[in-house]
Specification:
alpha/beta; D-tyrosyl-trna(Tyr) Deacylase, Chain: A; 8 strands
Amino acid sequence: MRSVVQRVKRASVTVNGERVGSIAAGLLVLLAVGQEDGSDDVRWMIDKLTGLRIFEDHGGKMNCSVLDIDGEILIVSQFTLYGDCRKGKRPSFSTAASPEQAKALFDQCVEGIRNYEIKVETGVFQAEMEVELVNDGPVTILLDSKKKF
């Protein structure tokens, strides 16, 4: 699994002109599932997202997680994170999971985070979405459960 994680003051996602998810301070997570991903990758991603210490403590250091600040998470599916542009100029998505596999693991990830009693909002799987955010910092982190970066 891959994700782009942004620390935000607020974020929302809209589909067909209707806001389907919004959060206050917390994390905007663009999440993609690869063909080789499974339950271990889901657990790894849940652990990273809930424990990632990218929020400032009282001393101004990045020491707090979304749990520590009672933050919220907006998770949006984005298979294009598996776009491979090493050859040519058009990305190949050959390592992205099938929609069925991706949705199942995406849903497992969302439910796993909700088990921490964090407010979690999502977009609509496979929909054309408009994502709005106010990045806080800006702070943007890349995560990959296969530890490729």
